[in-house]
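Design request, tokens follow.
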């Protein structure tokens, strides 16, 4: 019962991404597909912000790590966390930038779409 109330309030929240895009009445399966489709955009936006945040020295070190192929995903994440103290903020900003872009595009779409 509690979970149903949470879903209803989230789905009808005009401040949520789906509410702002007027997709709140879509079935959950379609919402999952939309979120999966948005993922690559957030990833690209985040990578761009990460690269812009790295100093030339950190970029050189990162290239060296990747070129040698002796790294794991955890090693890269740790390198980025120590090189970019505000990496969590960059991720939040990336999500918000994609969200703002989607909302802007939705506002310019014909209503029949």
């Amino acid at each position: 019962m509690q979970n149903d109330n949470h879903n209803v309030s989230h789905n009808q929240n005009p401040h949520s991404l789906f509410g702002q895009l007027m997709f709140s009445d879509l079935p959950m399966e379609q919402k999952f597909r939309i979120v999966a489709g948005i993922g690559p955009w957030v990833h690209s936006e985040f990578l761009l912000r990460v690269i812009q945040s790295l100093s030339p020295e950190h970029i050189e070190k990162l290239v060296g790590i990747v070129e040698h192929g002796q790294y794991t995903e955890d090693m890269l994440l740790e390198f980025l966390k120590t090189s970019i103290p505000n990496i969590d903020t960059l991720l939040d900003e990336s999500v918000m930038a994609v969200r703002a872009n989607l909302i802007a595009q939705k506002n310019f779409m014909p209503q029949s779409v």
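Comment from the thread starter after seeing the answer: thanks! The radius of gyration is 18 Å.
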